[in-house]
Predict the structure.
Amino acid sequence: MAADTVVAEQETTGRRRPALSPSRAADFKQCPLLYRFRAVDRIPETPSRVQVRGTVVHSVLEQLFALPPEQREPDAAREMVAPAWHDVLAASPELAALFDGPADPELGTWLESARALVDAYFALEDPRRVQPEACELRLEVELPTAGMADPVLLRGYVDRLDVAPTGEIRVIDYKTGSAPREVFEAKALFQMKFYALVLLRTRGVLPRRLQLLYLADQQSLNYSPDEAELDRFERTLTAIWTAILRAAPTGDFRPSPGKLCEWCDHQERCPSFGGTPPPYPGWPEPDSAGDLERDAREQDAQ
Ligand code: SF4
């Protein structure tokens, strides 16, 4: 199958309901209150130039694989950067505020830095030799949970899925930052294990390789999961969802301050920083879950 723009691994039927994505699960693990602000209150966060550049580069790499293999050249990819930025801007006009107008010289520098990341991708692999099954693939599965009315609904997007003629699966995720130090590798792999588990449960195939491509320093982090590990990981996700549902009726999502607070957009409303959270809006209605999904996609793009 050629690389599709967005392919649903499992189309949802009926009403959509809140799902657990890798980003939201990681948020809850880091700080339950941060999870609430993002997934329940849905308080908008201000995207940085770095984050938006990540979205643009992901878009370029997705479009690159829509070309016939012989046309997947660095120059073709570089030429996609400015149009990809314009597409992102058309979808989210408020991002124009990141720059001081189209003539802002910092815009030119920023676009060139996006081209440099696209160039870096070609140092990691030759896209002419890759024929993905899908790009921007939505993965979704329900995990049964003992003693709970609703199963856990897992939902995420993989940047690219390669399937060999032998049926072996490779999951690829692009990161526009640098490879994490060893201590942070587990966090980086959390997302990949999430995808591996969903693929194992939906296709009955254990992905052979999970690969994170870090463009900023041209590093690749490879990992081969085993089934027993994914079974344990499933129990971890179920425990996270159980804890979320326990807090959901009353909004008892507590702050858990740590080093990452430095990058949190919500300090002004966080009790750990002297703030007061807004009134709890209640657990999201099922049909409003689509916005959570988009939020999660944007978070995963970095
Ligand atoms: S500032 Fe820290 S403790 Fe407060 S919501 Fe953000 S991550 Fe949680």
User: Anything to note?
Assistant: The chain has nine helices and six strands. The first strand starts at residue 7 and ends at 8. The CA atoms of residues 64 and 77 lie 6 Å apart. The chain has one domain: 7-251+281-300.
